Each structure stands twice: as structure tokens, then as C-alpha cells.
Amino acid sequence: MNQLNKFIAEKAKELNIDICGFTDALALINIRDYLILRKDNNIQTEFEEKDIDKRIDPKLTMPNCKSIIVIGISYNIEAKRTVPLASCEQTKRTVPTVCGRLSKSTWGIDYHMVLKNKMNLLIEELKKVTDFEYKCFVDTGPLIDRELAKKAGIGYYGKNCSIINDDYGSFIFLGYIMTNLDLDPSEKLEEDCGDCNLCIKACPTGALEEPYKLNPKKCISYLTQTKDNIPTELREKMGVKIYGCDTCQLVCPKNKDIKRSSHMEFLPKISNGYVNIEELLGMSNREFKKKYGEMAGSWRGKTILKRNTIIALANMKKEENLNLLISQLDDSNPMIKEYTEWAIVNIFLTRLSTK
Description:
Layout: H1 3-14, E1 19-24, H2 32-40, H3 52-56, E2 67-74, E3 99-102, H4 111-127, E4 134-137, H5 145-151, E5 156-157, E6 163-164, E7 172-179, H6 198-202, E8 208-210, E9 213-214, H7 220-223, H8 232-235, E10 241-243, H9 247-250, E11 274-276, H10 277-281, H11 285-292, H12 301-316, H13 322-326, H14 334-353
Helix pairs in contact: 1-4, 12-14
């Protein structure tokens, strides 16, 4: 590792960046065929760059790019959640609210802001010792950040397609800085899943169709964000998840006995990790932005999360929730009305089948 690498790594540590690695600007040729396969099978999502060449070639984003700095920050924060999970699922326990679950990825302050701030601070430190050009991204760039993370030694692919780090597991956010600096590449980590397939077995929708192959259009994390119509057979497997899904990571042995996150920004101070469904259904857009505007999941807006709460109510299959659904039948948004009608029918069909 050259002196500039060492300087960056030391400054990253001072800035409380958990993992820092380096890679070259060569095209990610090894995943080109897989991306073409996804495109041919119509399992590209609306959130990704459609130009495959831009997804794999750093120089199409930054022509003079020579090296890429990749960072990882753990969001595996410990938090005491005040609303019990039992209140969100089929249970006989009496609870004060009807609620849905939020993924750890959206518990606290929007990670895009947190990582971008960390990278900007790192860039400012680097500017003190050398003049350079750069571009930095957190989810917003065309390149595949997980592939860059693998090349930079941040971690290796798990069978659930998450990047796994030996110290922090897979609950890590990724960001990268493209530069025109000459940096030494980090050593890659070897894959270490062995014959374990717990994540594949646990996936509620079967989105992990085989090891290291994810069908994103069946993934619950994607389903909670898309504006496209969700097939009814997948709605029924979303449970009470309002944004994101942690299932495959929660069962992963690589997430046991690892370092916890020290980043207090990711504590669920506002939501406690849950959404009060009744409150959300009655919120104005202004109220939604005021309460949830800083969390990562808010980027899709109130309507998408509202749709997800309606799916959650359907999956709870409780007659006492019908009043909440009926109140949404007059919603001016056709999507909300369609999902509400489906949810009501779903609950009545469950009632009939149990008689």
C-alpha cells in the first residue's frame, strides 16, 4: 500500500468510516453477461441504469478515472424498540396500535446523507495533501456498488447477493469516490458461505432463485418501493413489511457475533423501527414529511408507504382493521382504492374460509 493509500485509510478511520478499500477503474466485464441476462428476462428494475455499458465501465462516468475509493458503514445498530413485534402480526395479544415493520436500512437518518457527508469530509482531508478530481456516489451512480465493494476488498458476495464483511457482517451501507489518483488496489476477500443456504430457504417470495442469483422483482425490499402493480401472490408474502426486508440477513450466520454499528444517526428515534398504520393512513403529505422526511424510506413518498400499510392490514387478516380500510375507499388515488378493495376482499375471504 502506497503512502496515499495509508493516508486515506487513516483519515477514514478518524472519520469513523468503518471500512475503506481501493480498486482500479477497469470495466466490470465479469458481470456483463449476467446483466444482459437480467435485461433479456425483464428483471431489471426501474431504479437502475438501463445502459449496461455505463453500469460496468467507470470511464463512461468519469473518463479520467484511475482509482476508486469504496467505503462501508455499518447500520447494525442496537436499539430497544418500544412496540413489540407481536402487535404487527397475527396474534391474540392485545396491543395499543396497529403497526408495520421498517427495515433496519431506514431506521434513522437517511443513509445517503450520512455517507455523502462522510465521503465529503474524507475528500476535504485528501485535498489538503494532493490536488485531484473526483465524483462520489451513494446509490445514485450508474456503477454497481456491490461489485466495486467486492473488488475493493470491502467484503465478498453472500448467497443472498449482499456484501459480507468479516467484521461487520452484511448490514453495511456502501459509497464510492471515483478519482484520477494512482492508488494501490486492495486485496479481495474470498467467498465464505460454504454449503449454508439459510438465506435461500428463508426468503419469503423465493427471490433468491439460486445461490448468488437474485430476482429483484420478487424481492420484498424492491416490492415495498416500486410503483408498479404488485402481483397478489407476492402481496400475500410481504407480511407487515412497510419498507425494506431484512429476512435473508437476519438468518445469516455471518451476522452473528459481529461488531455493532457505532453510528447513532441510524438509531430509530422517530419510528422505533415501526410505522403506526392508523396514523400514517390519516397523515397529510406535510405531516408525513415532518415526521418521516429524514428517513431513507421517505424518498418514495407517502402514497407508496400507504399502499404498503394497506397490504399489511390485508395480511393481518383481522376484521377489527376493516374500519381502517373502509376509510380509504374514498381516496382520490386509484392505486390506493384498488389495493384497499383487494385488502377488504382478502379479509372477508379469510373469514369465510375459517367458518
